[in-house]
Amino acid sequence: MPDNSSGPLQEGIFTGSGMGFVGEVELEVHFLRESPDSHPLIGQIRTLQSDEVREYWNRVIKELKPQVIDRQSTDIDTLTGATESSRAFLEAVENAMDKAYETK
Known about the structure:
- This protein is an alpha+beta fold.
- The protein has one domain (about 10-100).
- Helices cover about 35% and strands about 25% of the residues.
- It contains 2 helices and 3 strands; from the N terminus they run βββαα.
- Strands 1-2-3 form a 3-stranded antiparallel β-sheet.
- α1 crosses α2.
- The protein is elongated, with a radius of gyration of 13 Å.
């Protein structure tokens, strides 16, 4: 999980990338406020680019994406049989979170 010592996440859309089994994946992560007084939360994750084996990537999206959004964390176990694709997904989300922390 990224170091959030610089403060809360910034609202907005940030991209992140991670290296999978086949190659790099790129995600778009939306950080949204539920109310004007709340800190932004991960609200949506969208695949921009992935050359991962479709069967494995679809599993990652189906199983890991809701967990990341529900837990607001990337501290999640990878999927057996789709380990590298899982790692790429989580790395890309973390990369986007790092950018959201850096933006002022």
